[in-house]
Amino acid sequence: MNAATALGLPERAQVLGVMAAMGESGLRNITYGDWETAGVTNPNGTRTTSIGLFQQQTSWGSTDERLNPTKSATLFYQRLAKLDGWETLPASQAIHRVQINSDPNHYSKWEAAAEQVTAALTVPCAGPDLELAAGPREWGGYENGKIPTSALARVPWAPEMRLRADAARSLTKLNAAFRQTFGYDLPLNDGYRDYAGQVEAKRIYGAEAATPGSSNHGWAIAIDAGTYTHMRISFDSATYSWLTTNGARYGWVNPDWAKPGGTGPDEAWHWEYHGTV
After folding, report:
1. What is the mean pLDDT of residues 30-56?
2. CB 257 within 8 A of CB 263
3. pTM for this one?
4. Helical (H) or strand (E) element with 197
């Protein structure tokens, strides 16, 4: 599960990883697989070479890598993150597309148990009574503004925008509550901003924009919220008031520097995901 966190993936990914390991090996790091137990072959007739928690074949990595729990989990999560739309797929089907097993529903029976295991071991997300973590920072070994789209998740109601997967998942929950109050989805004017986008923002906005390569948007855990017509929200707007009251419950905050009296610039529309403690 730590492997998912290290890649910036949300709790849902952790559940899928546990499900996969339960369905493949019963959470046992075994040195044999389907060929040894049942004579299973690949579609081309060759023997399967599955080993480890995830029963990964030689195409996944070396024997040492596949028998190393952390490395084998990392290999699983890296392929999961590259699967477009995995967050919205039924759990077993998402795993099936990573593992390429014969039955897309094979892992379904372990979903409830995997959720229990994950809930017991996962550090809780920040809420109103929890100290929030630090702001946007490096993750996954990526550079600011140079994060591959395969490592990011689309925002469901604004699919042209992407965020780190856990930030997108939390924002989706926040948006559901926002929609219940206002009757429409939270308007977004910006999310992840790649390096080229930061250069363009600097050209357009000058001193108001961050130096390219240092924008908080470049870590894919910041948004710019808008009005219903996608104008910038103000500090006296209903949207800002609602986000101030409810945002931290989902890990989203208007950072101190962006508030009146902060180091500036004042940006009521700028919100960052500080959600894990």
Report:
1. 92
2. yes
3. 0.54
4. helix 195-205
